[in-house]
Amino acid sequence: MMKTSPATINLPDWTDPSAAAWISSPVLGGPRTVSPAVYYRRGLRIEGGGPARAFLHITALGIFECEINGRRVGNEVFAPGWTDYRQRVYYRTYDVTSLLRDGENVLGVILGDGWFSGHVAEKDRQLYGEHPSFLAVLEAHSGGQPAVLVRTDAGWSYSCGPILENDLIMGESYDARRELGGWSSPGCSGAWLPATIQPAPDIVIERSPGPPVRRMESLPGRALAAPPDVSWLPFCRRYDFGQNFSGRVRLRATGKRGLHLQIRHAETLKPDGSLYTENLRSARATDQYTLKGEGLEEWEPRFTFHGFRYAEITWQGAAADLQIESLEGIVLHSDTPRTGEFECSHPLLNQLAKNILWGQKSNFLEVPTDCPQRDERLGWTGDAQVFIRTAAFFMDVRGFFHKWLQDMRDAQGSDGAVPAFIPFTGSFGSAGDGGTAWADATFICPWTIYLCYGDTEILREHYASMAAYHDFLGAHRVKDHIRSHPEIDGWGGFGDWLALDGSGVSSGGTPKDLIGTAFYAYATDILSQAAGILGKCDDSALYRALHREILEAFARRFVTPDGLVVGGTQTGYVLALHFGLVPEALRSSAASELVRLIVRNGNRIGTGFVGTPYILHVLEANGHLDVAYRLLEQEAFPSWLFPVKNGATTIWERWDGWTPEKGFQDHGMNSFNHYAYGAVGDWLVSSVAGLDIEEPGYRSIRFKPRPGGSLTRARASLLTGFGRASIGWEIEAGELLLHLDVPAGSRAALDLPPACGQAPLALGSGAHELRFPFPSAGG
Ligand code: BGC
């Protein structure tokens, strides 16, 4: 048992190898197999009443949970989170004063594989290393210099316990008969072996700028009608949590000792009621639990999560061997506080907004992932930039993106290239170009965070990265101001990913050099503005001049003299109009052509990831609000409401993830929880309800209600840095009735629908109730 050590450290130096050592164990799984989680413990004796304050600093290459004297430290899940462990890892500091006591104490750590040595995407395990390890210091403050109470060193011991397998993608396996009773309390006996010291990794160890993952909500599981119990088949119970989400189950059951349960997860069911798991690809997404048979048992896995709405428990034996008291769904995501609310008179649009929010909850877990269920779960840059504006309404994602943009800087190649997903899991130092609209997240994400939160710091932090990627483009991807010029760029990016525009290919039919040049213009404009804000006037002027040249080059190459856009796709028109690439005199004919394409398509959308976020904005800005509402309220496939009508509780990856005619899309790529098409949330808020940004961070709010379609009322509210801003409108007897809240310290401009025939009004802080004549709801 260790005595209180007199050695002292200063808090910032606790990670120094002279203060503590990285420790591990020889327990190891193979690259294709699985490994158990390892339990570590260290005793310490405290005399004389204990310290006034005690802090535990801890980090790991792997994921950990800590206990002191049998009580959990903190409430974080998957700490210390996912970074490129070849370069950086974050640490956590917990105030553990109340967990310590006079006399014997035990500090315990359970260490899991996590992203460090578990499966990441479809790759083999052990991407970053074979053995998880950790570093910790327990520090006491009682006036004067802080003292180290415990450090990680050779005095720790380890044991394997009940967690026989732990893998974020495959699942967790727990044998309750192997529990190490009281393992993190004094007096625990058993086979504990000495931990091994590891060489200290040469990486940055610092405090995380982002929020941790936590258990955020719980959803009751509803038992579904069970398939008939047949003695030669496993017994089977299925549950519906009513919501597709990321997390895991919490089981409360009694049963026979040694009974082995398999818990499988799925987003949806097949017509025969069985789980649809083909779209999980190689993700086993199966947890296993073996009962100890000592009364009511309660279990929730620690080191895994799944993307699912349904769970199925099966066992061999007799039906009576198991009594399930309850199965709860535990929702996990990064603790990004909820900030925005949207609601309107159209129930399906309300469900759409709810689905968008759940897409965000399910995929903002350490990094903005594409999807939580299949063997992918990567920080796809394109998806993140498409959705960020919507995300920043529903939740406070500022810290979350500060963290992910640091991941992005870590992933950027020395040539400036930004990869397609971040953290980058490819070979270290050779990022490769993620391509148009994907790697452009390097411009769009910091810029959006700046607009939504007035955060100039993020521009400062990320400016060099943006400039480096822009230089990369200039050097390798651009010819005569055309990005992805076919003569120099054979790939050209992912295109208008998953567009249903008649092209029959997943990259859609919009020419890649058109998309490339449109985003090159957008990126250059962002850089010019960011440089101006940061006081880099020369840079700003250079980018401004370049931006003008790109606009001209775009118009020359992609816009005909009568306002047609090359390629003839909805997305081509949307990008050209949204990024100001169509000469002023031709805008109205280009917009009419876009409308013609939409009408010809049966008032249905044909855009993919790239065009979808902007299409309704473009229609509205060019005098076609009625068409925007026709797309928004469309219920036939493809549309936003088609999945809603078909019971979706999240946003589907593909417009045709499931159709009555064809059933499920290609299983290889058919997520029911991809947020990209949820980017329409931005238009719901900024135009349907009418809450928009006039000056960054909502210093000035732009109220811009645009009633239309069948809607008779809508409202949105947002917790800004100044306080709660809200708008609610209602159409009542030919009048538009508005309730507006402008928080103290902010102001607003009210931009009324054209039908009101009113010039914009300036409003000060406070509550406002206003009425205007409003002849028709058609906009
Ligand atoms: C992901 C997407 C991603 C894409 C790149 C897919 O596998 O799920 O959301 O952006 O690859 O095209």
Description:
- Helix content is 23%, strand content 29%.
- With 779 residues, the protein is of the alpha+beta class.
- Helix 3 (381-394) runs parallel beside helix 5 (441-453).
- The longest helix has 22 residues, at 512-533.
- The chain is globular, with a radius of gyration of 28 Å.
- The model is unreliable at 1-10 (pLDDT under 50).
- The structure holds beta-D-glucopyranose.
Q: What summary fits the major beta sheet?
A: 11 strands, mixed
- Overall mean pLDDT stands at 94
Any low-confidence stretches, pLDDT <50, length ≥5? 1-10
Roughly what fraction of the amino acids lie in strands?
A: 25-35%
Number of strands: 41
Counted by DSSP, the helix tally is 14
Distance between the termini: 76 Å
Say which molecules are bound, naming each kind only once: beta-D-glucopyranose
Shape: globular
Helix content: 10-25%
- As an assembly, this protein is single chain
**Alpha-carbon Rg, integer:** 28 Å
Helix/strand structural class: alpha+beta
Keywords summarizing the entry:
779 residues, six-stranded antiparallel β-sheet, 41 strands, 14 helices, alpha+beta, binds beta-D-glucopyranose, 23% helix
Question: Which helices and strands occur, and which strands form pairs?
Answer:
Elements: E1 22-24, E2 38-46, E3 53-61, E4 63-68, E5 71-72, E6 76-77, E7 88-95, E8 103-112, H1 114-117, E9 133-141, E10 147-151, E11 157-160, E12 163-167, E13 171-175, E14 193-194, E15 196-198, E16 204-207, E17 213-220, E18 222-223, E19 235-255, E20 260-266, E21 268-269, E22 275-276, E23 286-290, E24 297-299, E25 306-315, E26 322-334, E27 340-344, H2 347-363, E28 364-365, E29 367-368, H3 381-394, H4 398-411, H5 441-453, H6 456-476, E30 478-479, E31 482-483, H7 512-533, H8 537-558, H9 570-578, H10 587-600, H11 615-621, H12 625-633, H13 641-645, E32 658-659, E33 663-664, H14 681-689, E34 691-695, E35 700-703, E36 713-720, E37 723-732, E38 735-742, E39 747-750, E40 761-763, E41 766-773
Helix pairs in contact: 3-5, 3-14, 4-5, 5-6, 6-7, 7-8, 9-10, 9-11, 11-12
Bound molecules: beta-D-glucopyranose.
